[in-house]
Amino acid sequence: MNEQVAPAEPAGSRRGRPPSTSARELELIGLRLFVELGFDNTTIDRIAAEAGVSRRTFFRYFDSKAGVLWNAFDAEVANLHRLLAESDERLPIMQAVRLAVLAANHYRAEDVPELRSRIELIGTVPELAATAAMHYDAWERAISSFVAQRTGKDPQSLYAMAVGRTTLAACRAAFDRWVLRADADLTAYLNSALNSLASGFSDPNVDDPDLSPATSR
């Protein structure tokens, strides 16, 4: 379906502002417009115009409107692949996974309002909800591929897939709990959830993380 160009200031027409931008700037502009105007009513042309760049420049960073909301997540997946590849081979698998996941995440309590807006959009806009599985699958495969490499198994083996899926589930639970409380860095919740997973959830009293200064920095 062709998008209708919304009335907006032509890209590059703002005096004193060079026609350049970044993925992060487009991401923030897109998110703001999605919240203000609605996802369906926000065009790529409008996002580009707000950034003072051309439609072509937008497509240098993203292949669709939906890609704007998944930019940070996809960057995390790429970073997770790299961190796992560089992990110490002497570490137990789940310890290596936990350390890589923690290193790949950078969200702090002050990021929660922005992420709540993303969650609301992804949960309520059918086009965005339809793309979610693809991105979560990519995250899961980063883990299962690493496990397969470390064990010599096929990435589609039961063991590799089970580690990938349970790790993703634990991290999503940690993320949801963190967004609800917004009282520390995301890594505090990820660390607690992944430690519980690695121990086989043997301690039912381990719930929210210890938010002492040493862990909440």
Summarize the entry for a quick read.
With 217 residues, the chain is mainly α. The chain contains eleven helices and no strands.
For the terminal residues, how far apart are their CA atoms? 46 Å
Assign the structural class, choosing from mainly alpha, mainly beta, alpha/beta, alpha+beta, or little secondary structure.
mainly alpha
The fraction of residues in strands falls at under 5%
Helicity, as a percent range: 55-70%
Shape: globular
- The multimeric state of the shown protein is single chain
User: What's the rounded overall pLDDT mean?
Assistant: 87
CA radius of gyration is: 20 Å
Low-confidence stretches: 1-18
Tally of helical segments: 11
Order of helices and strands: HHHHHHHHHHH
What is the β-strand count?
0
Largest sheet data: none
Please explain how this structure is put together:
With 217 residues, the protein is mainly α. Helix content is 65%, strand content 0%. The chain has eleven helices and no strands. Helix 7 crosses helix 8. It starts with 22 loop residues before the first helix and ends with a helix. Residues 1-18 have low confidence and may be disordered.
Features:
single chain, 217 residues, mainly alpha
List the helices and strands and how they pair.
Elements: H1 23-37, H2 44-51, H3 55-61, H4 66-69, H5 71-85, H6 93-104, H7 112-124, H8 126-151, H9 158-181, H10 186-198, H11 213-216
